Amino acid sequence: MARQSIPRLGVVATRALAEMARGVLAGAGQRYELQLIEMPADEAVASVRELVQAGRLDAVIAAGRGAELLRGALDIPVAQIKVTGYDILHALVAARRLNPRAVLLTRRRLADEFESLKPILNLELVPLIYEGDDEARRHLDTLSQATRPVVVGSSQIVHLAGLHGLPAVLIYSMDSIVAAIEAALELTRVARVEEAKRERLDRILESLAEGVAAVDMDERVQTINPALAALVGVAGEWAEGRRLSELAPELSLASVLKSGEGRRDEVVTVAGRRLVSQRLPLMEAGLQVGAVLTLQESTAIERADRKLRAEARRSPFRAKYSLADVLGEAPLIKEARELALLYAGTDSSVLIGGASGTGKELFAQGIHQASKRVDGPFVALNCAAFPETLLESELFGHEEGAFTGSRRGGKPGLIELAHRGTLFLDEIGDMPLPLQTRLLRVLQEREVLRLGASEPVPVDVRVIAATHAELKEVMAAGRFRVDLYYRLNILSLTLPALAQRGQDVVLLATRLAADALQRLGAKQPADALVVPLVRASLGYSWPGNVRELQNLVERLAVFLCAHGSLRDSDIRRLAPELTTAQAGDASLARTADTARRQRLQAVLMECGGDRALAAARLGISRTTLWRILREAE
Description:
Shape: elongated
InterPro entries: AAA+_ATPase (IPR003593), AAA_lid_NorR (IPR058031), Homeodomain-like_sf (IPR009057), HTH_Fis (IPR002197), P-loop_NTPase (IPR027417), PAS (IPR000014), PAS-like_dom_sf (IPR035965), PAS_4 (IPR013656)
Mean pLDDT: 86
Strand content: 15-25%
Pfam family, one: HTH_8
Protein name: Propionate catabolism operon regulatory protein PrpR
Keywords: ATP-binding, Nucleotide-binding, Transcription, Transcription regulation
């Protein structure tokens, strides 16, 4: 980056203030350049603009209302020469040396500041206030015909007082001008920093293949990069300041500016090209100040999607879920989540117990994701899914020629593939005894021996095992090694059945229904499925746990998507297991129904009658809460 020149400052002043400013010109040197623009502020605007366009001015210094006028008319920093308490006191002392009678003639704002300083300065002086030159002249006429005091005021007041034959003292001091110069230097420094940031951002935007535009609250373009300008067929400089919807109506950001809500991933056709748009509000300090549009070629997104899918195929051993994906507010599931998070901080083996469908692999993935091994592989194997010979090869790997049909060059086993990661062994209770012995050696020695190999391979792997069986009973029957059990059961985690989780059924059903309906492209809300399902399943024990609930929700979602509604009769036909369970124990269903309503009422009371808060705490929608309470009336 080229070295920046020293700041170039201009002082806009007339008469007495201009004379004082000349005394500061000699102080300009290596730090800054200073030039005097000796004319009234309103007349100086055009001259200052010319100097700025010529690169000869970075900031302006002026006094009083002149600074305010210039600040509103120019695009460069304007520093104001301010009057301090010291300036007032110094000017009054100088005036009283000339005449004991001194008058401060000033505008309203400075008079208000003077009033706040009077107790500090110990002055009894009452200032005369004027709003314009005509009013100032009337005050001076009166003073010239009466006591003829010394007048203290601005450069213009000093000039007018002279025309009336009155002595006058300028209220500004040299120190005030020097302070304004320092303020102008700081404003220039900040402006240059911001300009450098802007230029850097412009370079970034210019390098993007995606189209980007930012607009203000009037939808006028503030920034547009070359990609977007070329897309709509305009020059970037010409587009700035014009409304985006005038350049291309299909790219309008009016709705985002009005609602303050973003619109993501919308497909739009511009100049015959299919693009994916993102329309987002632009916020500063919590307030919306505009909106941003980005456009990306749909073909580029498709290429990226294909690449991601290919990467996923090349790296199959990865965890998809975290502990945050474990839904539920029941005490037992919350305790399980807390234990899982605690266990994630260690490297010890974990044994997860629980009935089928309770989410054992979900917890295993969550522990891996929260552990220091998160960047390593997550390798899962269901021990009940393979015959013994194939399971041994899958788990331990083999050398070339180890058995008929073995892979040329050999094959690493899943234990090797889990190196520096996590090995999840599901249904560990179904692992054959000979393989249990080999697995125990891996855990003890931290090395694995492939089939047909003579040299073991060192491995760094954490094992998480899971079972739906009661392993102590399996051990008593001689089908599971006691030493392997204690090697695996260093950290123990038992997952509750769905029937033990109370209102979590509603929470889970709502999430599962929303996901299923979204996949099917249905427009119906999740409540259209959840409400009749929950009503029909009161008292049901859910023997298949969360997996059964997921399957049932998927089944009902397909029907709801096809028919638009889901009645109780449809539930009975599509899920006869629920009806059978209720018919077998109607009193249990009624008891559960009553208990559920009592729970809703209790939570509602805890929330002070706030239905929105109660619904959120229960994990249901406000509509569902309203319907259940209405049925209870």
